[in-house]
Write a structure and sequence with these properties.
The structure is a single chain. By secondary structure, this protein is of the alpha/beta class. About 50% of the residues lie in helices and about 20% in strands. The strands form three sheets. Strands 2-1-3-10-4 form a five-stranded mixed sheet, with helices on both faces. Strands 8-5-9-11 form a four-stranded mixed sheet. A two-stranded parallel ribbon has the order 6-7. The protein is globular. The chain binds beta-D-galactopyranuronic acid. Beta-D-galactopyranuronic acid binds next to strand 3. The site of beta-D-galactopyranuronic acid has 11 residues, from strand 3.
Amino acid sequence: MAILKKQGLDRAALAAVAALGLAAASGPALAQDQITLRSADTHAEDYPTVQAVAYMGELLDGWTNGRITIEVYPGRQLGEERDTIEQTIIGALDMNRVNLAPLNNIVPETAIPSLPYIFRSVDHMHRAMDGEIGQQIMAALEPHGLVGLAYYDSGARSFYNTVRPINSPADMEGLRIRVQNSDLFVSMVEALGANATPMEFGQVYDALRTGVIDGAENNWPSYESTRHFEVAPHYTLDQHSLSPEILVMSKIVWDGLSAEDQELVAKAAALSVPRMRDLWNERVAASREVVEANGNEVVEEVDKQPFIDAMGPVYEQFVTTPELQDLVDRIQAMP
Ligand code: GTR
């Protein structure tokens, strides 16, 4: 984190100053220190997730007269999600906006909102994740070195491919589908009879273009922003996953903030959520227009039931403890 670095004192030195009773050095002087939080995102600068974190930074900047700021690094500048998650856990990176899926293998609780068809609608997802269930999943991140700050929308993920329109699971047979680095997504694709290839987001376009894979899965904005729609024209709105995005902070960095600053950061993160949702809805509509103007074949009216019916093995594989089952039950019981 930038606080200590800029001041040129390490933690031990600060502790020594405090032990000597030099309150002025550790108290008011430190309070004036500049805190610059570096935050990574895989998406381009105009994507709603990037804009939401930038907005959070503007709020903090305004409230603190520039004492706390956020520097957002969009477009994978700091690496793919797997790398940036590792950097965040060890405190080399302060904040990170990722999907929940690449956290599935690290924190089992994060698999629950990533489960196929666990949510009936985006509203259902909001009700669960904005409340106790979302909080419980955020709390589960902490022993793994991460503090959850906000859930952001990610719409619904659906399949697209270069080969044929998908109307039922039978059409998935044998297709090589890229998934995120999540065993849950591998299991889901395999339950549908396709072959799953975990791969970083930044490699998908070339892999589709060169035929290394036949397809992938994502929401409207990502299908459009990555130009995947130009190389994989068949898009089927099977909406198998509503796995939300999450903004996390390194626990090491969080623990280095004063209680007052933690409160400011949490408040700014909370306020960035409604802003993100507005930006998201606008972007979904705009992305859809771009794809449709390109003449892509979009299968809108797909019977989801056979897809849902195929998901039993995924739930069996990932809902493995009474605690995880309880999360599933509570989500499903929500109106
Ligand atoms: C996007 C998501 C990214 C990343 C990407 C992917 O929808 O916003 O964080 O998970 O999908 O498929 O890798």
